[in-house]
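cron nightly-structures :: item 1 of 1
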Amino acid sequence: MKEEIIKRLESMRRAIKEAGIDAVIVPSFDRHLNEYTPICWQARQYISGFLGSAGTAVVTAEHAALWTDSRYFLEATEVLRGTTYELMKEGMPGTPTIAAWLRSLPEVKRVALNGECMSVADAAQLQKELRLGRIELDLSHDFIKQIRGEEMPDIPLNDFFVQPDEDAGRTPREKVEEVRRMMREENADTLIVTMMDEVCWLYNVRSSDVEYNPTGVAYAMVTAEGAFFYVDDRKMTDEVRRHLEKNGVEVRPYDRIYDDVSALPETAIVWVDPIRTNAELGRRVPSGCIVVDKMSPITILKSIKTEAEYQGCRRAMLRDGVALTKFWKHLYEMLDRGETPTEYEIDAILAGFRAESDRYLYDSFTTITGYNANGAIVHYHPMPDTSAKIKPQGSLLLDSGAQYYDGTTDITRTVSLDGKPSEKLRHDYTLVLKGHIDLQMAVFPKGTRGNQLDVLAHRYLWQEHKNYGHGTGHGVGHFLCCHEGPQNIRTDNNPSPIRLHSVTSDEPGYYPEGEYGIRIENLIRCIKVGEGGGEEFYGFECLTLCWLDNRMVDPSMLDDAQLRWYNDYQERVYREISPELDEETAKWLRDHTLPLER
C-alpha cells in the first residue's frame, strides 16, 4: 500500500504541475460535509492511505504532509511511515497550521482545493490566512477525480425511503412552512441546504448512502414559493415520488442545484449557513444577492424533537436496553465458561442482540471496545488481527449505539469483569459518576449554553487535578446522525443554548494512560421544570435505560442527592426493562440493579 501511495503522489504532482498549481489541499469532507464520507469522496484517504475520521493532506511538488489530531497520532505514524508524508500533530506546540506551513514554502504561490469539499466558513478562513503570504486559493479543481479517472467510484445509489409522518411528528409541508417562517424573520427568500441529514429531516426521507447515518446523497433548496429536492433519479422510488408530490416538493436532477443557485436573480436574499454549506455552492451565489450569513433554520428545528420523535426515542431506548441487558449477561457467561472473545468480536455479538428487533437498521457509529489499558485510548477502535482478548479480570469500556427506525441511541458503560475493581479504579469511576449525575440533576434558566453546564461534569475530577479532553455532550438526531448540532456540552464556548426538547449526551470520563478508561454515557432530553422571576427553568430527563455496575461505585463518595438519583435510576431500569425479558434474564438484571447502601 505504501508503494501505491507514492505512485498516487507522483500522479498528483504531475496533475498540479500541468494546471500551474503549486500545492493542493485535500480535506476529509465530501460535497455534503458529512461526518462519514461515501467512498467516492474519500479523497484524503485515497491520496494518503490514512483512514482516520479527521485529517487533511497537503501535497506540493517537493513535500507531502498530513494534519490530524491526538486521537490518531499513533495510527497515522504507522500508516504514513515510508510514504514520504510528514505527520503534523494538530494542536500540539510547534505544529504550524496548514496556511502557515504553506506560507513557509517560498515556491508556493497558488494553492488548489475542491470547493465542494470544504465549508464556506473554512474556505474563507483559509483564504484569509493564505493571503498573508500573498498566496492565491483556487477552489475550482478536483484533482483526485482527475487522477483516478475511470477508477473513480460512483456516487452511492441506494434508494430513498419514506419516514412515516407519524414517526416524524410533522409533514414535509409543515416543516417547509416553518422554515419559511424563519426565513421571513431574516427577510430571506431562498435557503440552500447542503447537509444530507438536514435534507432528509426536511422531507421525511431516509437512505443508506453513508456508514452509520440513514441519510442519502441529495441537496435541497427552499424559496418563498417552492421546495426542491435535488437527487439522482435512480435513487427515487414511486412511493417517495408520491410522498414528495403530495407535500409540494419538486424533484430535480442532482447536479442542477449549482446551475439553479447561479441563476438566482440579483435581487434574491439568500440564506447561506457558512458552516453547513459547501464553498462551491456559496461561490455560485450571484454577486448582487444579499447573503444571510447565519446558522441554518433547519439545524435549529431538527434539534427540537417533536412529541412523536420523543416517543419513538423512548421506544428505541427500551429496545436498546433489552438488547444490552441480554448482551452483558451473555458476555459474563462466556467469561465464566473460560471463553475469551476479542474486543473486535464483541461488536458483532452486541449487534446480534440488537438485530433481534425488526426496528434495528444498523449501528449509529463505530463501536469503541476498550479492554483494560485500551480503554484509556479515547477513540480506540479494535481491529480484527490486533484486538485484545477479553478475560474475566480488569475492566471494559464499551461505547456503542444503534439506528432504529424510530430513534437513534448512543451509550457507554464501563464495567468490572471480575467484580473486584481496585480501590483506585472505584474511586476514579465514582468521581466520573458524580459528575455524570450532577449534570443530569442540573436546573438552569432558558438560554443557558452547554459550556455553562460543563463544569458540573468536570468538577470532581478537577478537584483532584484530573481531567478528560473530549466534550461532555453532543446533540443526537432522531433516526439521523448520532452526532448533531447545534448544542453541545464542553468547555469551549458554543453560542447555541440548550433548547427545550433537544437531546444531548452526558458522557464524562477519565483515562489514566496504560491503566484503564472510564466513561459513563446516557442520553438526556431537555425539559421544562418550572418558572420563577419571569423566567422558564429547564432540566434534563434521562432517556437511556441500561444498568450501571454497582461494583464500580464507592457509595461513601456520593452525597444524599446523588445516591438517591443512582438508586432511582437503577430501579427504573429494572422496572421498565424486566417485563421484556425472560425470567432468568430478569433475575440477572434484578441482581445488578439492587440499591446501593453506605
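cron nightly-structures :: done
The chain is about 35% helix and 20% strand.
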